Amino acid sequence: MAGITKLRVGDEDFLVASMIERCPRSMMIRELVKNALEAACHAPPGRRLVEITGVAVDGVRKLRLWNTGPGLDADELHRMCDIASSVGKLQALDGNFGMGAKVATLPSNHLGVRYRSCKRGQVSEVTIGKRNGVYGRILQPGGAAVIDVTAAVREAGADTTHDWTEVTLLGQRADQDTVADPYGGNPRVLKGWVLRELQHRFFRIAGGVRVMLGPEIANTLRPRAFVPLDSHMDQRFARCEVVELPEGVMARFGYDPAHPSLPGRNASFVDRLSPDISFGGLVHDDEFYDFRSATRWTQEAPAFGIGFGARHLSVVIELPKGYPARPEAYRQFLRYRNGAQDPARLPDFAAMVRARLPGWVRELVQSLSPDLDLLGDVNDQLRHLMAELGLKRKRPRLRRPPPTGPETMAGVAAPPDAAAAPKAAPDVTPPPPPPGDAEGQVVDEVEDLEVIPELLLLRDEQEIADRNLTHRAARFYPETHQLYVNLGYPSVQRVADALIATAPAEVPAEQAQAAALTIAERMLVLRLGQALLYGLSKREAKGWAPIEKQQATSSEMLTLAADTLAALLLEARQMFDDRLGETYMPSTSRMP
């Protein structure tokens, strides 16, 4: 067998700086908290604690993370500072092996990251930072990198009777408050940013570890315990259910109804520390890797079978142990362990979830759907137009996760397996599963039945906002073949006002307004349905680039079509006159 010579680093300073400065700053809290949680797990049961607080350093408030895990002596603390060095951890690509916290904190803490650790009653301190363009340990007066600060720590009132470790972020400048401004203004953060980052990253806290937030972190009068979303759903949601999907993936459904007395709030609201908005997320090893809330979730929810009520329904996809996915180098994203190492995303599991929606979720969604009587003969007209265009329904093939198995786990893509596609529940009609897409690649389109898109009409302001349609007329979801229409779009009222102005004086105002609004809404739905069908017909157009074909059915193009609603005013007036004739003229025809 041929020998080998190890590759070495020619410019060590450049490599270290490159690793540090490429790291996303947003990963700083995740790395620090993850290290603290792992350390605290080794403390005796009942004493497993992580605290996130502020501490004064030379009169300026700095962010501090403290844990009760095993302490480090001076030599261990010195070795811990090296990149890719780890004390007491297994180095593995699938593990959290210790280089992340240093790499993630140093870009925003050139002045320094101060480590203190108490072991057997002795407290050692080291600070790493950047000086003269080089990252390393900051030498203290006297030339030492690691110093003994036991006396100073005891004098300040700290307990040295048990092991602990703390990390303090000094920032870029001595006068920088790293609690309120952790990144030196680049980027700026909102008040309560620590809590928000914890909620959006740590779905579950394992090992019996408690995480306490100091008053300056929680913006409260006293320390508060951090409650992860896993516990929040179990304790505060009205209903939760876990459903098993293919490959051992678990989907957790949670229902958080409207608050009985606080408009705009969900019932789980207790105070500003309790998240009361719906969300969707992809969880791997108890951490979110694709978290979506507010409009990022409500816009995505229809692909999961949640057409209405998304602001009250949450879905969490949890990958099992051994699932063929691993975090990328900086743990910002999750990647499948296939040849292409595609990013793993929450929408990859939408078809699986749609096929296995619990009955109570389907019933709830249906109960929140608006009355569709307005459609009338609109669907008939759209079917006629579809026939004229010779349009075949086409849907983008949903990208799905690669199937698991021994070959996949070894890094080789498994062969296509039709059995991996989800089976529909008896009363659910899922989209046809794509043929074996073992690599999880995005496939363009697949032909399906010739049916008109499902028209879903929105009148409620919150539902309109949840689809990001407050200033748009419609949004088409090609995955589910659904068109959401904003009946509150301004062109509707403009047409209704124009019709009302033509009503005979003897017609009661309330009757004229109701008829005019009904007709204006119907004209909008028909206009948008027609525009969508014409846009879909461009998928077969020659000379159109793929991105141009997608734009033909975009929300922006549909909104432009809605802006031309006044062009149909003559047709609308005829319908208006007919409607008034049906409801009003019969009663007046008996007049002498």
Automatic annotation (TrEMBL):
Keyword ATP-binding belongs to the record: yes
InterPro entries assigned to the protein according to its UniProt record, in alphabetical order: HATPase_C_sf
Molecular function terms, GO-annotated: ATP binding
Region Disordered, annotated ranges: 394-439
Superkingdom of this protein's organism: Bacteria
Keywords recorded for this protein, A-Z: ATP-binding, Nucleotide-binding
Comp. bias (Low complexity): 406-427
Protein name as catalogued: ATP-binding protein
Organism in which the protein naturally occurs: Neoroseomonas terrae
